[in-house]
Specification:
The chain has two domains: 76 residues, Type I PLP-dependent aspartate aminotransferase-like (Major domain) (Aspartate Aminotransferase, domain 2), CATH 3.40.640.10; 133 residues, Aspartate Aminotransferase, domain 1, CATH 3.90.1150. Helix content is 43%, strand content 14%. α7 packs across α9. The chain is globular. It starts with a strand and ends with a helix.
């Protein structure tokens, strides 16, 4: 069983303890978490690494440079502090905006109203650093809101010290067929928000003024 643990982070999810054979991370996200370098990591047993992964890497040549590895290792020094602070901010924003009439749907597994809240708490003990806002008026409303943001940046990245918004329907999930998007809940008005380390009051103020433009 292979687990992509990027959203959960190693701070909140002990995937190996919970039964995973292989755990993968885009270390570009929370592990670096400061927009400095690209990288990825595969965690598994020594036997899997030696017999499966190493031969593949030797034949394909894909490996992290020493300097990038150093950046990632340094990022891990503050990983726990950053992730917990970002998750606290995400939870506070989710609680503050869940009743906002301008948002047709707010998705955050750390809210008791989320259908998988008990599972998220059992596996992670946290809702994590990401939430999603769905605007009923679709892509145009989402674009107007995102373009009106002053503090939060637009990027396809996540898990950064800076707060970031993404429009999944036209970026991360753009190649999916519409029926697949519908099944996943990727609507034209959906905005993914990765909460960073800025002051939560400032972030809420930015989101609320941007919603006025939606």
């Amino acid at each position: 069983m292979i687990v992509d643990n990027v959203f959960s982070t190693p701070v909140f999810s002990r995937a190996v303890v919970q039964g995973a054979d292989v755990v993968v991370y885009s270390t570009t996200k929370h592990i670096d978490g400061q927009g400095r370098a690209l990288g990825g990591v595969v965690c598994a047993t020594k036997a899997f690494i030696r017999k499966v992964l190493e031969p593949y890497m030797k034949h394909t040549g894909g490996s992290m440079s020493p300097f990038t590895s150093w950046i990632m290792l340094n990022g891990m020094v503050t990983l726990d502090l950053r992730c917990r602070a970002m998750a606290e901010g995400a939870a506070e924003i989710a609680r503050a905006l869940q009743a906002d009439a301008r948002i047709s749907r707010l998705i955050y597994p750390g809210l008791p109203s989320h259908p998988q809240y008990p599972l998220a708490m059992a596996q992670m003990g946290s809702g994590g650093t990401l939430l999603a806002l769905d605007l009923a008026d679709g892509k145009e409303a989402a674009f107007r809101m995102m373009n009106a943001l002053r503090i939060i940046k637009i990027s396809n990245n996540l898990g950064d010290a800076k707060s970031i918004v993404t429009h999944p329907a036209t970026t991360t999930h753009q190649r999916l067929a519409q029926d697949q998007k519908d099944k996943l809940g990727i609507t034209p008005g959906l905005i993914r928000l990765s909460v960073g380390l800025e002051d939560v009051t400032d972030l809420l103020g930015d989101l609320r003024q941007a919603l006025d433009h939606a």
